[in-house]
């Protein structure tokens, strides 16, 4: 009987260690996927920008100052950023945040490992507080499985997590404009992020 209990405890410990190893492996894979989607999205945005011809007319006295609002490249970039911000905001509106909170607050849960791995990909020192709120919420949603890194939202979500070209800030503004609540998961990943930012 004692031997059976000892064997049962050993099996339970082995099972827990295997579960932790599996969770860490899945978290690492999720972080790699996030990085790949971010790089793909960033490359796509950069490809949409017209090449710099190297000729500037700003110092030419024969030209008049026309605002950058007439510059097609600026308009295209702004339109792309707004479309991406709207896409991420739309993805966030479909998330069940109660389920995200439940999944991410379980100690030792797979979601916790995934959040830590993804948070390590972000340069938090360059992310302003409101953008960090968006990034942390997206990380929590992806880590809990409520928001997939795949499909049409993949690249914009990855770029928003990284706050590429201030996309997370734009997402926040879009949600605020539409009076959509934005949950704050920064306390959940506080240990995984290198920031002292707060609202």
Key structural traits:
199 residues, mainly alpha, 7 helices, 62% helix, 0% strand, disordered C terminus
Q: Can you describe this structure?
A:
The chain has about 200 residues and is mostly helical. The protein has one domain. The chain is built from 7 helices and no strands. The chain has helices spanning about 1-50, 70-95, 95-105, 110-120, 130-145, 155-160, 165-175. It is globular, with a radius of gyration of 22 Å. Mean pLDDT is about 75; it is low at about 10-20, about 55-75 and about 195-199.
Topology:
Blueprint (H helix, E strand, L loop, with lengths): L1 H47 L23 H22 L3 H9 L4 H10 L9 H15 L10 H9 L4 H11 L22
Helix pairs in contact: 1-4, 1-6, 2-7, 4-5, 5-6, 5-7, 6-7
Span of the ends, CA to CA: 58 Å
Structural class: mainly alpha
Most strands sheet: none
Secondary-structure element order, N to C: HHHHHHH
Radius of gyration: 22 Å
Say what oligomer this is.
single chain
- Count of domains: 1
Strand content: under 5%
Mean pLDDT: 74
Indicate the percent of residues in helices. 55-70%
Number of strands: 0
Low-confidence stretches: 10-18, 53-74, 194-199
Shape: globular
Q: Please, how many helices?
A: 7
């Amino acid at each position: 009987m004692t031997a059976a209990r000892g064997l049962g405890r050993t099996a339970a410990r082995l099972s827990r260690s295997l579960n932790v190893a599996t969770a860490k492996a899945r978290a690492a894979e999720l972080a790699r996927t996030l990085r790949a989607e971010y790089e793909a999205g960033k490359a796509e945005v950069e490809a949409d920008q017209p090449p710099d011809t190297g000729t500037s007319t700003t110092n030419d006295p024969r030209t008049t100052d026309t605002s950058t609002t007439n510059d097609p490249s600026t308009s295209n970039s702004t339109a792309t950023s707004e479309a991406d911000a709207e896409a991420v905001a739309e993805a966030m509106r479909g998330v069940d945040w109660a389920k995200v909170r439940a999944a991410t607050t379980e100690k030792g849960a797979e979601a916790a490992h995934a959040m830590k791995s993804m948070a390590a990909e972000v340069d938090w020192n360059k992310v302003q507080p409101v953008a960090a709120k968006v990034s942390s919420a997206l990380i929590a949603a992806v880590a809990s499985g409520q928001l997939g890194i795949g499909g049409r939202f993949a690249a914009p979500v990855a770029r928003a997590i990284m706050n590429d070209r201030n996309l997370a800030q734009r997402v926040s503004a879009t949600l605020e404009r539409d009076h959509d609540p934005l949950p704050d998961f920064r306390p959940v990943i506080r240990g995984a992020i290198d920031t002292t930012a707060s609202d």
